[in-house]
Amino acid sequence: MSKTIIVSNRLPLSLNINNENIEVTPSVGGLATGLKSVHHDGNGIWIGWSGLTENEVSDNLAPQVEKELKKQKCSSVSLTEKEVDGFYYGFSNRTLWPLFHYFSEFTEFHQDQWETYISVNQKFADLVIENLEDGDQVWVHDYQLLLVPQMIREQKPDVKIGFFLHIPFPSYEVFRTLPWREQILNGMMGADLIGFHTYDYVRHFMSSVQRLLNCEMNFNQIQYETRNVKVDSFPMGIDFEKFHHAAQKHNTSKTKSEIQLSLEKHRLIKGDTKLILSIDRLDYTKGIAKRLLAFEYFLEKFPEYQEKVRLVMLAVPSRANVPQYQDLKNEIDQLVGRINGKFSTVNWTPVWYFYRSMPFENLIDLYCSCEIALLTPVRDGMNLVAKEYIACRTDHTGVLILSEMAGASIELNEALIINPNNFEQVANSIKQALEMPDAEQKSRNKVMQDRIARYNVERWATEFMQNLTDVLAVKPTNRALKFNKTIENQLLEDFSSKTKRLLFLDYDGTLSPFTKKPEDAIPTPELFEVLAELHANPKNQLVLITGRDKNTFDSWFGDQPYSLITEHGLWLKSPDQSDWKLLEQVNNSWFEVIYPIMMRFTDNTPGSKIEIKNYSLAWHYRNVDPEYGANRAIELKATIQPIIANHNIEIMEGDKVLEIKASGVNKGKAASRFALDFGPDYILAMGDDWTDEHMFTDLPDDTVSIKVGNKITEAKYRIKDTSHVLDFLRKLAEN
Ligand code: ADQ
């Protein structure tokens, strides 16, 4: 029976070893709840770190620990203290966490930590592979494990892999500063489905992939190597029922908890007093210091509220090994001290501050007792506390003030949405919340509560898994065989058995690597040498086939003894003819209409340029910002399309180029005609571009068609890049 393997940095439990006694406590966090059904279904297993280093689990206890974990359907990756330092406190929390939350000033780049991150990610991937069986699927979580999907894919190419990022994905301008940015993206692209909390993060990720990996995109699908990778947003929910029921129980219970009694005892002296709640991990992304300053500003701006309102602030200790967290702790301590010192009276302290984790029941007490929740992260992937607060407001009263920088603000837009840097706005919103009529509170909260109840954490997990299955259902069926030793040997053997061999070789991207400027892609002495060797064998007929104009090709290859086909099949030069022959009857009278339009687009699209060929016009946008270029190309196409309709002219889309040319002229047609005249017993066609696909489909079925690079293709084989092409051609030349 197939199963799902969940992979996250920490296992959903905590381990305590007391002498020889092993105590396992399952955690009750949101992720553990959401994934419960996925985890418990069949032979499901959760892979992660137990929280104890190799030193903390003695060799003789290790098997017993693993046995205990197995009972919980878990398996642990064992890590040394050094690995935890470099991987978790190092690269994860000193590089990725600050960078992805736009804290560039806190972001450190250390080669050794990056290397530890790679080796620890490999440990996670290895343990997954050890547990994988045919038909299993894997769901990898969060920023600590960004390389794991690709590491699994390398060894298990057909496994279904999903990846979810719980923190924001930053804009390309921030992400590009990471020295290992391509490796990180390639790591994530090992997945079939990549999920984020919001569409903004999807957008940022797609933009980085487009710019750094030069992949083709179609809406939210990315063509990557032989696969389609789907990217989408899945806003994570909470275990609504659990919070809502606990709140109902709290509200009807006759006995009062200690914290509740305390809250009541400290309820303020003047009537009509209110409590403002703030809960987070103590993290600089949560905007805790700014929240305190904004609250201070509120007390100054609206002194009538002094002694009538209190900020109950709960901060959970977090990552205390990282220096910025220690600094933050000191900063918060000082701010709380200063504000309390400044405003406190005999009967009132404005800020009530707890620095600790709290049992679930106490959290519920706070959610239920505080009339306002003030959550002001400066960046937050989602923010579940906001949703938990709303879920606990069983009578629908209460006001949520939420930062627009939290992913949750997109779903909770009936809250008072604020910019955490705008103290004026925060102070005014606190006042608005304090004065908001019950009816308005209820109408806002009801909408939010219904939404949170519907899209709960279980639904989030189910939808993600459903999408993972669907993505694979539309996986392209065509899978060109990747070159390897066996395939290469078979092809060479087949080639050497034939005597009248015809070879069609595309130029840019096949024989010559792509350059930023097409005019720089001049043939190298090495290329001339390889082609000469191939031509030297009388069994070979060599044809270079290109979209380039005939003049350029003539200046490069005009005196070479092989055939040339240019402008996608318009011109042919055979070695036995002194001049070029026009293969199709075409004209260029339409240039005068289309050229001015292209010129207009070129003028206001920096980096673009027009190439004038004998019978076609090409608009190149390889040097334009990729997103902008792609949009301008769509616009140009839409402008030209109605003008050329019914004129026997077509728009052909190549790689970062739009070409307007006579319709029906393409490499496939030209190559087929050439093959028919020549009568070979073997045909090989190689190309990298969309325009080469015509050759792959139009040439006879037994053609050996080879795609260069990663893009989707109709070719039978796939070769990595131009340097591999040249190696292969050299081997062909020897046969
Ligand atoms: P976090 O940064 O941890 O999560 P958040 O989403 O708010 O942030 O979750 C915090 C959780 O901790 C809540 O479930 C809350 O109840 C609990 N909690 C808070 N204070 C507590 C206390 N004092 N005692 C006990 N429990 C406490 C990361 C991302 C978020 C994203 C989540 C989920 O940074 O942006 O929403 O993952 O994807």
Brief characterization of the structure:
This protein has about 725 residues and is of the alpha/beta class. Helices cover about 40% and strands about 20% of the residues.
Folded structure, characterized:
The chain has 735 residues and is of the alpha/beta class. The chain has four domains: 4-233, Rossmann fold, CATH 3.40.50.2000; 240-454, Rossmann fold; 481-583 and 665-733, HAD superfamily/HAD-like (Rossmann fold, 3-Layer(aba) Sandwich); 591-662, Alpha-Beta Plaits (2-Layer Sandwich), CATH 3.30.70. The strands form five sheets. The chain has a nine-stranded mixed beta sheet, sandwiched between helices. The longest helix is centred in the first third of the chain and has 21 residues, at 111-131. The radius of gyration is 32 Å and the shape is elongated. The two termini are 50 Å apart. The mean pLDDT is 92. The chain binds adenosine-5'-diphosphate-glucose (ADQ).
Write the layout of secondary structure elements.
Layout: E1 4-10, E2 13-18, E3 21-26, H1 30-34, H2 36-40, E4 45-49, H3 62-71, E5 74-76, H4 81-100, H5 111-131, E6 137-141, H6 148-155, E7 160-164, H7 172-175, H8 181-188, E8 193-196, H9 199-212, E9 216-218, E10 221-224, E11 227-233, H10 240-252, H11 258-265, E12 274-281, H12 288-301, E13 309-316, H13 323-343, E14 351-355, H14 360-369, E15 372-375, H15 384-392, E16 399-403, E17 416-418, H16 423-435, H17 438-454, H18 457-473, E18 481-482, H19 485-496, E19 501-506, H20 525-536, E20 540-545, H21 550-557, E21 563-566, E22 571-573, E23 581-582, H22 591-603, E24 609-612, E25 616-620, H23 626-644, E26 649-654, E27 657-662, H24 667-678, E28 682-687, H25 693-698, E29 704-708, E30 717-719, H26 722-733
Parallel strand pairs: 1-4, 1-6, 4-5, 6-7, 7-8, 8-11, 12-13, 12-15, 13-14, 15-16, 16-17, 18-30, 19-20, 19-28, 20-21, 28-29, 29-30
Antiparallel strand pairs: 2-3, 9-10, 10-11, 21-22, 22-23, 24-25, 25-27, 26-27
Helix pairs in contact: 4-5, 5-6, 10-14, 10-15, 12-13, 12-16, 20-26, 22-23
The structure holds adenosine-5'-diphosphate-glucose.
